[in-house]
Specification:
This protein is mainly alpha-helical. The protein has helices at residues 18-26, 36-55, 68-73.
Length: 92
């Protein structure tokens, strides 16, 4: 299953490339109870979502409900979701 990108883009977002996306993702602290491996995997998936956003391609993985912080990672700092949230199983 692929998840479509949110095509309603604001006039400008503060993340413009993968380097900035990685900095954004790395700014979130690891939640209590998450192992370093699980957190690393969560951040890697979030970066994959950003890669698909910048290339304009649908995200070609299934996203089941993950930790709420993950969904903040795949939003812009302005709060704009980069994937259509209604397409994410368990979120809506």
């Amino acid at each position: 299953m692929s998840i479509p990108l949110n095509t309603l883009r604001p006039n400008s977002i503060s993340i413009n490339n993968l380097v900035e996306a990685r900095l954004w993702i790395d700014s979130f602290p690891r939640p209590l109870g998450f192992s370093p491996y699980a957190w690393s995997s969560t951040k890697r998936i979030a970066l994959e979502v950003w890669k698909s956003f910048f290339t304009g391609q649908k995200f070609n993985r299934t996203l089941n409900f993950m930790h709420p912080t993950f969904y903040s990672m795949i939003r812009t700092p302005e709060g704009f979701p980069i994937l259509k949230e209604k397409s994410i199983r368990g979120l809506c």
